[in-house]
Amino acid sequence: MNEAMLPALVGRRVTITVHTRDLGNGSEDMILDGCFTGALDTWGKLTFQAVNETVYYLFCDEVTEVEAGCTLYEAITAVGIPTSNHESDLYFPVSAESTAILACYPSHKSNARTFVNQVAGGHWYDVPFAFQPWWDARKPKA
Fold it and tell me: Which of 18, 103, 104, 132 is deepest in the core (most CB within 10 A)?
């Protein structure tokens, strides 16, 4: 996991896959359900509290997959990246931070394309069907 994704995930319930380091007794993958509880500590570890209240201290590179309890749009806007849209297509600037967040959403990443934004300038991502407010406005009213 890229540490740029962390601010969007703190406090949200997620499922992660962790590849533990080989400490002489073999390495294995663990699947944990819970939430990140804070930023990186001085040793570069993340604090993750599982739903069973067990606390884990993990390095970013040990977290191999994140199933976030938030949409790509929520993750991008949570860290202050500007967005735009055309109907359900989400647009946001290409940067190291936005690329790291997009990488955590493999289905969106595989469909994302870049373009030069003629209004705001620079390279932007175009991610089809990822502008969440468009979908929220079309949900049946309860």
Answer: 104
